[in-house]
């Protein structure tokens, strides 16, 4: 008793869906610790901004970004050689492109107050996660939407404490999201 053409096509479709789902779950498991790392970096950076003069903020973020990129590369090594190499290359290009975008935007649209500068990274990061979530990894959609909402709530209602708000709800939220992804 053999399979019909329709049964074979259905079986291949099931295999394809299962493989794709497995790849998504593996991606979540790999990115969970990386998101946790960036949540800690984000929290440390914003807390430091809350206590230090604005002239020192750039220095702090350069150091934290370097730690984040190196840490992300180390954490991605557990993904397997091929996946880690692809992730390392993409991650490096993504980080550089994001930093160029931030600095370019700040240069073009110079705010008269500091609060827009504090909130902008949360909005951009949220949109990046929304884009990834719309592509294939739905959980990123929820992470991105939550980050955008938390950023705007802080910006609109908690401006005097915005650095600490972004540390707690931005960095803490990213860390918790990383735990959520890692558990899958």
Describe it for me?
The protein has one domain (22-182). The protein has 6 helices and no strands. It has helices at 5-51, 57-76, 81-108, 115-135, 138-157, 162-182. The longest helix is centred in the first third of the chain and has 47 residues, at 5-51. The protein is elongated, with a radius of gyration of 19 Å. The mean pLDDT is 85.
SSE string, helices as H and strands as E: HHHHHH
Number of separate structural domains: 1
Derived structural class? mainly alpha
Coarse shape: elongated
- Count of runs of 4 or more consecutive helical residues: 6
Relative strand content: under 5%
Number of strands: 0
Main sheet makeup: none
Gyration radius, in Å: 19 Å
Portion in helices: over 70%
Low-confidence stretches: none
Oligomer: single chain
Distance between the termini: 39 Å
Average the pLDDT over all residues and give the rounded result: 85
List the helices and strands and how they pair.
Layout: H1 5-51, H2 57-76, H3 81-108, H4 115-135, H5 138-157, H6 162-182
Helix pairs in contact: 1-2, 1-6, 2-3, 4-5, 4-6, 5-6
Top keywords for this entry?
6 helices; elongated; 184 residues; mainly alpha; 0% strand; 85% helix
Summary, kept brief:
With about 180 residues, the chain is mainly alpha-helical.
């Amino acid at each position: 008793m053999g399979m019909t053409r329709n049964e074979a096509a259905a079986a291949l479709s099931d295999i394809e869906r299962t493989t794709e789902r497995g790849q998504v779950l593996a991606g979540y498991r790999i990115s969970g610790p990386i998101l946790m790392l960036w949540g800690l970096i984000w929290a440390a950076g914003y807390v430091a901004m809350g206590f230090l003069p604005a002239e020192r903020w750039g220095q702090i973020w350069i150091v934290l970004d370097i730690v984040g990129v190196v840490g992300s590369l180390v954490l991605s090594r557990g993904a397997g050689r091929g996946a880690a190499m692809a992730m390392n290359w993409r991650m490096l290009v993504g980080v550089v492109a994001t930093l160029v975008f931030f600095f370019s935007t700040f240069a073009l649209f110079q705010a008269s107050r500091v609060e827009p500068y504090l909130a902008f990274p949360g909005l951009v990061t949220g949109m990046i996660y929304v884009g990834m979530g719309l592509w294939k990894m739905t959980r990123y959609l929820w992470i991105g939407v939550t980050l955008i909402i938390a950023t705007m709530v802080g910006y609109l209602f908690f401006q005097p404490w915005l650095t600490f708000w972004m540390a707690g709800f931005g960095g803490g939220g990213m860390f918790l999201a990383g735990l959520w992804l890692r558990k899958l």
